[in-house]
Design a protein that fits this description.
Layout: H1 8-19, E1 37-42, E2 47-52, H2 65-74, E3 81-86, H3 99-104
Parallel strand pairs: 2-3
Antiparallel strand pairs: 1-2
């Protein structure tokens, strides 16, 4: 695929698909369904910025999870660069989880 045929929406879908392969080590649900990904931005240079949170500020994977997300997103051919920004505003809560995640964890 040449760079001219890929659009940012399609790339966004690819990014989400890759993010869905990353799991929280303490909860058997991917970080997208958990609601840890707040936003994915793709600019015209195919630079990606991901705004995400963690379940807690002292999460045991606070150091490694953002790096894993960055590396996996950078592995997509069309992505020029990727940066992950961690935020705790708003703080993560179970309300951010998808129905699928709640079902998986027996919360429905």
């Amino acid at each position: 695929m040449s760079d001219t045929t890929i659009d940012t929406a399609a790339l966004g879908e690819q990014i989400v698909a890759v993010i869905k392969t990353i799991y929280d080590p303490e909860i058997p649900v991917d970080i997208y369904e958990l609601g840890l990904i707040y936003d994915v931005f793709v600019n015209e240079d195919m630079d990606v910025k991901i705004l995400m949170t963690l379940t807690t500020p002292n999460c045991p994977v606070a150091e490694t999870l953002p790096v894993e997300v960055e590396e996996k997103v950078k592995s997509i051919d069309a992505v020029n660069d990727a940066e992950v920004e961690i935020t705790f505003d708003p703080p993560w809560s179970q309300d951010l989880m998808s129905e699928e995640a709640k079902l998986e964890l027996g919360m429905l």
